[in-house]
Design brief:
The structure is a homodimer of 244-residue chains.
Chain A lengths: L15 H4 L7 H15 L6 H7 L14 H13 L12 H18 L3 H5 L7 H16 L4 H28 L2 H17 L6 H5 L1 H5 L3 H17 L14
Helix pairs in contact in A: 2-3, 5-7, 5-8, 5-12, 7-8, 8-12
The structure holds a DNA duplex (30 and 30 nucleotides).
GO molecular function (chains A, B): DNA-binding transcription factor activity; transcription cis-regulatory region binding
InterPro entries (chains A, B): Homeodomain-like_sf, HTH-type_TetR-like_transc_reg, HTH_TetR, Repressor_TetR_C, Tet_transcr_reg_TetR-rel_C_sf
Protein name (chains A, B): Transcriptional regulator
Chain lengths: 244, 244
DNA sequence: GCGGTCATGGGAACATCGTTCGCCACGGGC
DNA sequence: GCCCGTGGCGAACGATGTTCCCATGACCGC
């Protein structure tokens, strides 16, 4: 804060003072910059030193507002959890709603490249995560899922979504889009080149093994989980549980 | 240079030569010792230096037999994949068989603490992994699952198993058995202390959220996936797909 | 036999990383 | 008006994966 009765600064000292501007360095500011680095360059580029540099200071300064890197990651994860959104329950469409919510959550995680890796470590329990859990549970309850089933289901669901996001980030980080295509081409050829007598099943179904992009696989897993949950329903069959 | 006409070694230098025994340092030997360290102290303790120290040499020596740490991890993962086992297909029990195979695979991964984290990065494609995939696919085919479904299913199944193993290892590494119990106690209390008007669903089903150990949760997820897969069956209902 | 070549073995160093130590400057309470 | 606590931060510590460069020793063509 520049005082009210400031003396006219000597001209040759002029450029130094504004460069040394008093940036009040708070936990929020630190998380802000960390998020910016994460979104732009991924988790591997996020180091304490990098954050400090962005704030034009040394790494030691951060530790006054953040216990360590793990806490910083937790704060970031909690903030990201706040971006998760769940639709209002529609009992007739609960299965599709759960699948769509899962797809949306996956999109949120991959929007911040690599952070899913850290999120897998700390089960989030902040207010944002609670709201999300509450909303999913409401969806399930509206669909008639008994509580004992629903409780564990949300746990398994978020584990699956995070795992897929982690896998995505790990693959994306070492290959470009084009290299990934070539890689899958090679895998396909490799499968085809296998001896059919030792791998009769694999060689006869290469297409089913390697076809399908990330989104398709993700959705398939979500559907497996949801239909599995629906299969426990005792009396009435859930609406979407018909053969296709 | 020790010439051909070697002078008789001084007695006090004697014990040095056998200690400096020529250990021929091969890729297999490196993987062996790395596995020993992993099993005894976990993935975090596994560093190039640690492996080199165990072999009484410097870290640089390893790079003649192993391109880098990632390749070493890949070799270890491939070896571990060889421990995976799948029962011979019994068409009447294919659902239980898949679940049991999943539980067994999880046991293999957690027997080598932390390695699942690395396995999530590199989808294994070595011969051992192929045999495993082949066996699971045979199980599914015997159960009457169409190929297009089965292909993606094995992918999702192993992703889920690995994810659960990763979660386990991450939690186990920061807390002892007793601390974990206390931790869950705290979570339970925390859930109970939440305002019921803002979190009506969560507060009314705390038990369903926190109860159940790791194995129970793992099995539940496996059953979700398998029952989900069975629900696609068009004609006949799969044997185990009855309400309970 | 013998000299040269080349892969293996390894000591030292480099570039990072997360984190801690100790000092500096400032600002509000006695 | 002094004084002490606290935020800021340069420097350093210990660890990591990896590379440089040199010594050693075995093999191979002459």
């Amino acid at each position: 804060m520049t005082g009210t009765t400031e003396i006219p600064p000597p001209p040759w000292r002029r450029p130094q003072k504004p460069a040394r501007q008093r940036r009040p360095l708070s936990q929020e500011l630190i998380v802000d910059t960390a998020m910016r680095i994460l979104d732009a360059e991924g988790l591997d580029a996020l180091s304490m030193r990098r954050v400090a540099m962005e704030l034009q200071t040394g790494p030691a300064s951060l530790y006054a507002h953040v216990a360590n890197k793990d806490e910083l990651l937790e704060l970031m994860i909690d903030r990201i959890t706040g971006e998760l959104d769940v639709p209002a329950p529609d009992p007739d469409r609960w299965q599709e709603q759960v699948v769509e919510a899962g797809m949306a959550a996956h999109r949120v995680w991959t929007r911040h490249p690599g952070i899913a890796r850290a999120a897998l470590a700390n089960i989030p329990l902040g207010p944002n995560a609670l709201h999300y859990t509450e909303a999913i549970l409401a969806l399930l309850r509206a669909g008639g899922v008994p509580d004992e089933r629903a409780g564990m289901f949300v746990d398994r669901l978020s584990l699956y979504i995070l795992a897929d996001a982690v896998e995505d980030s790990l693959h994306r980080e070492r290959r470009t889009e084009e290299e990934t295509r070539q890689y899958y081409e090679q895998v396909r050829d490799y499968f085809h080149s296998l001896p059919a007598d030792r791998f009769p099943v694999i060689t006869s179904m290469v297409g089913a093994l390697v076809d399908g992009g990330g989104d398709e696989r993700l959705r398939y897993g979500l559907e497996l989980l949801v239909r599995g949950l629906a299969s426990y329903a005792t009396g009435r069959r859930a609406p979407a549980d018909r053969p296709d």
